Amino acid sequence: MTSTPLALALVLLTGPASLENWPSFRGPHAVGVGQGTAPVKWNLETGEHVLWREPVPGLAHSSPIVWGDSVFVTTAVRKEGDAELKVGLYGAGDSVESEGEHEYRLLCFDRESGATLWEATCHVGVPRVKRHPKASHANSTPATDGRRVVAFFGSEGLHCYDLEGNLLWRQDFGVLNAGAPGMPDYEWGYASSPVLHEGMVFVQCDVQDQSFLACLDAADGSEIWRTDRQEDPTWSTPTVDPERSQVIVNGYKHIGGYDLESGTELWKLVGGGDVPVPTPVVHDDLIYVTSAHGAMAPIYAIHADVLDTIEADDGESMAWFYPRRGNYMQTPLVLDGLAYFCSDSGVLGCFDALSGEEVYRQRLGEGRTGFSASAVACGGNLYLTSEEGDVHVIQAGREFEELAVNSMGETCMATPALSGTDLFIRSRGHLVALR
Asked: Does residue 403 share a domain with residue 424?
């Protein structure tokens, strides 16, 4: 590029607005809202708004995370043969059989060029637990605090590296069999992501045998506290609420909050969908929790200062509640006074965040594809990704308006990441940077 004022202006206009960090699943505290403005339309074939597109080996549904000039992803690479993936709207729960040895990897990409800066092999071996046909052996999104990055592979352990790819420590929690409640032969793989906060790593391990929530020292992996949970398997990532010094978890038998420093239970709510996946979201002193499987598909809007055991119809603890409007897969998103909940069949529900009044319900696409990735938002727009790889861009607000549908050309199961003017999308075989 020639050194001219015009060239310099182009660099400034097309560069990232800031090096906004997106350190974990759905960004800081899982709210899913970026501070910049990402592209509304793009085209992989023509290169419109495509900064780079790099192949990623293996099969993984973990999301990318961003810190400064680095983008991190995990993957599980089958040694022999390609991993099969069955997406779509179906209810079969059989496990995938006989996949053989895998390499579990953590990769670091350069934000500007897409070049691989380093790659670490965290573990090599035959998976200790089978997976669901729609899942992978690398479902959990990594997390970073700018000093270290942690990658969790369930039964294959929690692994911590510095930002140059040097191993700092490992922690093995044994076999973590998350599958159909009460049916241990239905092994569906592990999905809860770690959370880093002020030198602590929080992991939610709701499994068939002994569920627990644990806090580890990020410096060396030693256990600070562990609290047992009387809970069936779940796939939800915990949320840290620093204002009230609590870590909040979804569940079926035990939705609740725990003290950050001690792990002591602060409050508890029983009931919901019996296969909880979405992460709790805290916004304006309310905790939004949802799930959808079995007899219930609730949305709970819980007052964040709640204590003790509460009930769904408790008017003092609950701002509002719907028994049959909840999400199965997607973590909800709250933006500008509205709360958005997208079902696995692509029905987007918009509610007044404080009152719970339903604003609209609108189907995305034609109803023939699943939606597993969670929504993210920036610049007043929502980005919702179908399993078939169509990214629906919806203008936030009380009136439904679809601005664009962009094809990624591959299956998409991972939730995108946002940073400044950049949007990072992980598809079946690639990591794509859009600007």
From this structure: yes
> Residue 102 burial by CB count (10 A; 0-12/13-18/19+): exposed, middle or buried?
buried
Write down the pTM of the prediction: 0.95
Instruction: Name the pLDDT band for 11 (thresholds 50, 70, 90).
Output: very low
Q: Is the pLDDT of residue 349 over 70?
A: yes
Label residue 18 by pLDDT band (50, 70, 90).
Answer: low
Q: How does 189-228 read in b/e, with b if 16+ C-beta sit within 10 Å? A: bbbbbbbbbeebbbbbbbbbeebbbbbbebeebeebbebe
d(C-alpha 237, C-alpha 202), whole Å: 9
Range of the domain at 405: 38-56+338-347+358-414+416-435
What φ, ψ does residue 266 adopt, rounded to 5°? Answer: -100, -40
Cα torsion 370, 376, 380, 383 to 10°: value is: -30
- Look up tokens 């859009």; give the residue: 434
**Residue pair 72/142 in contact by the 8 Å Cβ criterion:** yes
Separation of alpha carbons 61 and 412, rounded Å: 8
- Give the angle 58-60-66 at the CA atoms, nearest 5°: 110
**Within this chain, do residues 295 and 364 fall inside the same structural domain, yes or no?**
no
* pLDDT, tens digit, 9 for 90 and up, residues 57-100: 999 999 999 999 999 999 999 999 999 999 999 988 899 998 99
Q: Is the pLDDT of residue 376 over 50?
A: yes
Q: Taking the mean position of all CA atoms in its chain, how far away is CA 280?
A: 11
